[in-house]
């Protein structure tokens, strides 16, 4: 199974924000949409960066409340690790686990095609495991 399967299930829409928006704006946007990451999209659909809950925490730990008025470009992760729609789910999970990421942009032909979270991947694996278990039960019952 690939990331394409995940995007087909959850959709490929991405909430993006301008790199000059403030941390305060980014936090409000993430809260409104109940998401943990925003993509900073560049020209022609490129992914210039990602701004996550962890970026907020790191910035707050280093500078406290004044960071809320900083532009997010000061705190975002530039040129984040990404995957393609053809990346196997297991490979994406490995990247996330090893690099301690919770979100990965999905890029196709240098254009942003979606974003996947660790929750998306775990959910997908749970459903896949349940389907496999049901198939095995059916096989056993059929004798």
Name its key features.
143 residues; alpha+beta; CBS-domain; three-stranded antiparallel beta sheet; two-stranded antiparallel sheet; 5 helices; elongated
In short:
This protein has 143 residues and is α+β, with helices and mostly antiparallel strands.
CATH classification class: Alpha Beta
Beta strand %: 15-25%
> What would the average pLDDT be, to the nearest integer?
93
Low-pLDDT runs of 5+ residues are: none
CATH architectural name: Roll
- Counting helices, strands and paired strands, the structural category is alpha+beta
Measure the end-to-end span: 29 Å
Beta strands, count = 5
Strand arrangement, major sheet: 1-2-3
SSE ordering: HHEEHEHEEH
Blueprint of the fold:
Elements (H helix, E strand, L loop, with lengths): L2 H8 L12 H11 L3 E5 L5 E6 H11 L13 E2 L10 H11 L3 E6 L2 E7 H24 L2
Antiparallel strand pairs: 1-2, 2-3, 4-5
Helix pairs in contact: 4-5
């Amino acid at each position: 199974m690939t990331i394409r399967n995940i995007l087909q299930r959850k959709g490929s829409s991405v909430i993006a924000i301008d790199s000059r928006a403030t941390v305060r704006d980014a936090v409000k946007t993430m809260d409104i949409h109940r998401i943990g990451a925003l993509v900073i999209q560049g020209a022609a659909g490129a992914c210039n960066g990602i701004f996550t809950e962890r970026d907020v925490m790191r910035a707050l730990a280093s500078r406290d409340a004044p960071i809320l008025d900083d532009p997010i470009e000061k705190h975002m992760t530039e040129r984040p690790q990404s995957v393609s729609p053809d990346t196997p789910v297991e490979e994406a999970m490995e990247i996330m686990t090893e690099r301690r990421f919770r979100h990965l942009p999905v890029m196709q032909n240098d254009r942003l095609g979606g974003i996947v979270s660790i929750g998306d991947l775990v959910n997908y694996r749970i459903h896949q495991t349940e389907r496999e278990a049901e198939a095995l039960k059916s096989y056993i019952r059929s004798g």
